[in-house]
């Protein structure tokens, strides 16, 4: 293996590399190529992640709504005045409607807000969303509505 100084001398022996202008142009082209590859890779990555960010945001929103529903249910089951009960009932129903809308938007997509439906090849996400939807419809929603009607 040649030492770096010997390699540099070998390059300068070529007639094309003797001028400093040629060296500058070649180094600039190499740097431009690296920057171009970096920009292209960044654009491809961000385009693929575009829809995923909305899904992550909606999943976080669902988590917040579950805490909101739980806090309203906590107050509904405690001894509070009828005015406060009405306030928490409206809040719980609103949070439940938002949760259900978010759940179906995650599952089926929504063009208005830029959410794409779950990819058919993503079996894990499909099964998790199906499980969440089934749990919501068959267990959670009836129990929560029962609590609202009969605290």
Structure characterization notes:
- With 151 residues, this protein is mainly α.
Topology:
Blueprint: H1 4-13, H2 20-77, H3 82-108, H4 123-149
Helix pairs in contact: 2-3, 3-4
In short:
The chain has 151 residues and is mainly α. It is built from four helices and no strands.
> Over the alpha carbons, how many angstroms does the gyration radius reach?
30 Å
Please outline the major beta sheet: none
Provide the helix percentage. over 70%
- What proportion of the residues form beta strands (DSSP E)? under 5%
Total beta strands: 0
Label the overall shape: rod-shaped
Count of helical stretches = 4
Mean pLDDT: 81
Distance, first to last CA = 83 Å
Classify the secondary structure makeup into a structural class.
Answer: mainly alpha
Return residue spans where pLDDT drops below 50 for at least 5 consecutive residues. none
| SSE order | HHHH
